[in-house]
Amino acid sequence: MSIIGVSSEMSIAYESFGDPEDPPVLLVMGFGAQMLGWHEDFCRALADQGRYVIRYDNRDCGLSTKFDGHPVDMGEFIAAVSSGDFPTALAMIPYRLRHMADDGLGLLSALGIERAHVVGASMGGMIAQTMALSCPERVLTLTSMMSSTGESEYGRSSPEAQAVLFAPKPADREGYIAAAEKELVWASQRYGSADMLRELAAASYDRSYYPAGIGRQLGAMILSGSRADALRELRTPTLVIHGLDDTLIDPSGGKRTAELVPGAGLLMIPDMGHDRPRELWSRLIDALVTHTGPAGGA
Questions:
Q1: Which H/E stretch holds residue 201?
Q2: Residue-wise pLDDT tens digits, 21-65
Q3: Residue 242, exposed/middle/buried by CB under 10 A (0-12, 13-18, 19+)?
Q4: According to the model, what pLDDT value does residue 28 have?
Q5: Which superfamily does CATH assign the domain made up of 2-157+215-296 to?
Q6: Which residues, 6+ apart, have CB-to-CB distance to 237 below 8 Å?
Q7: Segments making up each domain of the chain, as ranges
Q8: Segment (H or E) for 232
Q9: pLDDT number for residue 64
Q10: Distances (CA, A) of 50 to 23, 28, 113
């Protein structure tokens, strides 16, 4: 793991796998999750297929730069959004998805990589879409996984998943790890594993327990708005992947993304929720290798 400056105010923690001479694949993680969410074994397996894999911590997460000077009261923020007081809500959040996209592109620049295949999961899919929309010349292919378009009528969470997402997590290590089991509500119904969730929670807690960043990342998602019109004009080769068991971002989010992007491929995977079960890694990796191969623009 290394940390590198990508701008005057931002440093990004990242890790790479494979041969730098191979086609680069940038993995973008989702809301509140460290780069550990892209399992090391998954990254190595993808690298073994001839890809130079880079995973990283988004801003306000893991070991990347934190925005401690901008505390967010989640109750006040949600109240402002719910009441339509967007000027107040906008003033609370110091960045948007476009800034998070700039972080990923800045990381590529700092590593001397001009163009890369970009793969984003959940909020990471929204960031990856924003990268392709803002700098299409730098994104060889886009893969939007378990994500959506920013349109409120698509990709909605079930009430049960939303309750778990917004429930405060215990601050103590033991409680934090135990609470991770609640995320089974959006995991694969067949392959979801409480042991895997606890393992990731323990590693994340020990590496960087930082709940303060969650509110700012959530605000960035909510306030960045719809990408629908822009996605209609996107010409980057795009693959959309979504699990049919996903209750955190309903599969309609993936279907809508593929519907909007001209020529996009759509892979709907049975027995996959808002997770990447080890049992499905080979299918996911095969899809990524095919999409990022010569026909995909490498």
A1: helix 194-208
A2: 999 999 999 999 999 999 999 999 999 999 999 999 999 999 999
A3: buried
A4: 98
A5: Alpha/Beta hydrolase fold, catalytic domain (3.40.50.1820)
A6: 140, 141, 142, 263, 291, 296, 297
A7: 2-157+215-296
A8: helix 228-232
A9: 98
A10: 7, 19, 16
